[in-house]
């Protein structure tokens, strides 16, 4: 299926699981563990995370609408895939694991940058992450994990830029807006080069 909803995949803990996340300092040094729920309470506790932005062979970006059961930003549109590495797991292993779990695909991924952000979701909680951002190009059919994703679609970069500029950005997660702004400003050439891959 090109857009919309596909088969369910349940190889990963659900959105309400309380797996331990890796706490870090601003230099990304491991300083401990804390349950996922507590990491997102109040203003959040800084933890290690990653975001993946996957493009197709037409240069369109895969964006997803977060599942209704998500504690933070449910039903908001966001980047292709994001999550947290597990304790003892390298970032490389983590990003490819999550790509399979959430989207049912595999593809090469390229690291772009790392950034820290804090974003509050009313009184429910917040995100406070040191997030590594990767891009990739995928030609496999997407098979979403319905525990994580409500819907999905491919969008042209120009269309996304227009939506953000028009004020429609309120429907997107704050981390996606931050990382997309930086990608399109500082790493556009690397994104466009994905189309040149065989």
At the first level of CATH, the class is Alpha Beta
Low-confidence stretches: 1-16
> Proportion of β residues?
25-35%
User: Mean pLDDT, nearest integer?
Assistant: 89
What's the assembly state of these chains? single chain
How does this structure look, described?
The radius of gyration is 16 Å and the shape is globular. It starts with 19 loop residues before the first strand and ends in a 5-residue tail after the last helix. The chain has a 4-stranded mixed β-sheet, with helices on both faces. A 3-stranded antiparallel β-sheet has the order 5-4-9. By secondary structure, the protein is of the alpha+beta class. It contains 5 helices and 9 strands; from the N terminus they run ββαββββαβββααα. The chain has helices at 36-39, 91-103, 157-165, 174-186, 188-193; strands at 20-24, 30-35, 47-55, 61-66, 77-78, 81-83, 109-121, 125-137, 149-155.
In brief:
It contains five helices and nine strands, in the order ββαββββαβββααα.
Write the SSE topology.
Layout: E1 20-24, E2 30-35, H1 36-39, E3 47-55, E4 61-66, E5 77-78, E6 81-83, H2 91-103, E7 109-121, E8 125-137, E9 149-155, H3 157-165, H4 174-186, H5 188-193
Key attributes of the depicted protein:
198 residues, three-stranded antiparallel β-sheet, Nucleoside Triphosphate Pyrophosphohydrolase, four-stranded mixed β-sheet, alpha+beta, disordered N terminus
């Amino acid at each position: 299926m090109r857009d919309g909803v596909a088969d369910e995949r349940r190889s990963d803990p659900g959105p309400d699981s309380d797996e331990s996340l890796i706490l870090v300092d601003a230099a990304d040094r491991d300083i401990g563990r804390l349950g996922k729920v507590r990491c997102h309470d109040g203003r959040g506790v800084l933890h290690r995370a990653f975001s993946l932005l996957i493009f197709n062979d037409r240069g369109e970006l895969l964006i997803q609408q977060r599942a209704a059961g998500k504690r933070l930003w449910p039903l908001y549109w966001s980047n292709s895939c994001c999550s947290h590495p597990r304790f003892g797991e390298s970032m490389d292993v983590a990003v490819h694991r999550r790509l399979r779990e959430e989207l049912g695909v595999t593809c090469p991924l390229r690291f772009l940058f790392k950034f820290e952000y804090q974003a509050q979701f009313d009184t429910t909680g917040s995100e406070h992450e040191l997030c590594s951002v990767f891009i990739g190009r995928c030609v496999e059919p997407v098979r979403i994990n319905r525990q994580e994703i409500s819907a999905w679609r491919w969008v042209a970069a120009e269309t996304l830029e227009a939506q953000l500029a028009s004020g429609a950005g309120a429907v997107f997660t704050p981390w996606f807006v931050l990382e997309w702004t930086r990608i399109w400003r500082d790493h556009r050439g690397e994104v466009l080069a994905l189309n040149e891959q065989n």
